[in-house]
Amino acid sequence: MEITLIQGLLLFLVGFICALDAGLEVLYWFRPMVVAFFAGIALGDVSLGVACGAVAELSYLGLLTVGGTVPPDPLMAGMMTLVIAYTTGQSAETALGLSLPFALLAQWVGIFFNTVYVGIAHKCDQYAAEGNVNKFSKLVLSGWFFKAIVTGILVFLCSYALQGPIQTFVNTFPAWLVHGFEIAGGILPAVGLGLLLMVSLNKENAPYLFLGFIMATFLNLPNVLPIAVVGVCLAYINYMHEKKTDEASAKITVNDFGGEEDGI
Amino acid sequence: MESSKLLKNGKPRGKLTKKDITKMGLISSIEQASFSFERMQAPGFTLSMLPAAEKIFGDSKEDMSEFMTYNMEFINTEPHMATFLMGLILSMEEHGEDRKLIEGIRNGLFGPFAGLGDAIFWFTVLPISAAICCSLAQDGSVLGPILYIAIWFVAAISRIWFGTFGYKLGVKAVSTISESTKYITKAAGILGVMVVGGLIPSYISLSFSESLKFGMGEGTTVQSVFDGILPNMLPLAIVFFIYWLFKKKNANVLVIILGIIVFGIIMSFLGWM
């Protein structure tokens, strides 16, 4: 379907508001789940927005901004997965694969800003030395605001202005190519999970990974919540156990509140 | 005794109220504004504390300038928990502690806090909230995104609590925190890893086509052989393969994503998937 000018402007607004949040990471409105939901409302197809958001969210799970690195942009990924699915009529999985170039484009814009804003930090140094609260505040806030405006404009250009070329381009794809993107879309969440594991998995907690996997494979659970609850229980048991061993090995004299039962 | 705690212009230090700290928690939303590669969160981190700092320093420009200058040093921590550090700094400034000491604590603690906050928010809350909300959303229910927004709204509010906590503990916080950080990070790791394990079967779809068989005609399908060993073993294998590429081969995310797309297209072309 076609994106009208009004819808394009609404997408600009969604992009701008979510980019304001992306600059801060406060409300997590920059996550694909929320971006695609809002954009779905703007396009008048909420259920497509929700579906696209869910697919993109998982793929961008592990793509962290941790340590100041800039990953492919989750905001743009959520937005363009929906825009491509909406304009070309492809499935959410296929659209996710096709949204990658746009997520990369936004990533480069992000890197550009993070580099140029070194200048803002230096100007801030000067205001800090002067103790000038007013100018300091204004500068920091305008840097944040300006980046969000640029992201909003980028969203507008990629969605409204580029919809024709995208549609023509995708429609020339043979069926096997489209299906190939669909297969890729099904595997992409593994990237997010793999990245999460890279920072959280270690020898000690590896058994819990398999426990979670086996539960999900054989128990036919409606969602992951029961696994999370079991996880909380196990983490707590482990915490108590570890604290005890640590205290014992540190030979800290603990007040005996009847902890040592004689078993009688 | 009091004289050493006076401001540089000879006036006494202003006192903060509970309200000031709550306000700081709210303002700290802009902690990452104007992020740059060189100082990272320093401008937003400093800005978040300015209204409270103005109350402590009054019209002493010299104190304000010193305060802003040492806070403009490099900092990169987890935004939700940054307020803990801010509360701590403000409490120490209010009591007129030596600035060299405050600066040392600031620079020594943001790293551990980044680790702790990432373990809690990125590696635990994010996968769990995403998983639950996606399973709702895949049925097309708006409840998915709405719940997601609600969860992260509560998480955002937690910054006020962290700020108050840091302010109340003051200097005492340093030893308490470095002790419990280890346990919390570990517990969050267990929970996070277990949830990731639970996500693999439901969210990664990777299986061979029904028409791909061993031998001609009536042969068993390739997929049924894999399912006979362990259902969902292909999704599990691909996660570990990607994990291995990242961990041991230092692979680039972009290369892996492109690799997956190429793989999908080849499999589709061959008709194997």
Q: Key features?
A:
heterodimer; A: 264 residues; mainly alpha; 75% helix; flat; disordered C terminus; B: 273 residues; 10 helices
Molecular structure report:
- Chain A has 264 residues and is an all-alpha fold.
- Chain A has helices at 5-22, 32-43, 46-59, 74-88, 92-98, 100-116, 118-130, 133-161, 163-171, 175-187, 189-200, 206-218, 225-249.
- In chain A, helix 3 (46-59) crosses helix 4.
- The longest helix of chain A is centred in the middle third of the chain and has 29 residues, at 133-161.
- Chain A is flat and about 70 Å long.
- The model of chain A is unreliable at 256-264 (pLDDT under 50).
- Chain B is an all-alpha fold.
- Chain B has helices spanning 18-27, 42-57, 61-71, 82-94, 99-137, 143-169, 173-203, 222-229, 233-249, 253-270.
- The termini of chain B are far apart.
- In chain B, 48% of the residues are buried.
- The interface between A and B is large, with 110 and 108 residues.
Measured between the Cα atoms of the first and last residue of chain B, the distance is 78 Å
How many strands, what sense, and barrel or not for the largest sheet of chain B?
none
Which range best describes the helical content of chain B: under 10%, 10-25%, 25-40%, 40-55%, 55-70% or over 70%?
Answer: 55-70%
Rg of chain A (CA only): 24 Å
Question: What order do the helices and strands of chain A follow?
Answer: HHHHHHHHHHHHH
Which structural class do the helices and strands of chain B define? mainly alpha
**Average pLDDT across residues of chain A?**
87
Multimeric status of the protein? heterodimer
Mean pLDDT of chain B: 87
Strand content of chain A: under 5%
Low-confidence stretches of chain A: 256-264
Largest beta sheet of chain A, briefly?
none
Query: How many distinct beta strands of chain B?
Result: 0
Helicity range of chain A? over 70%
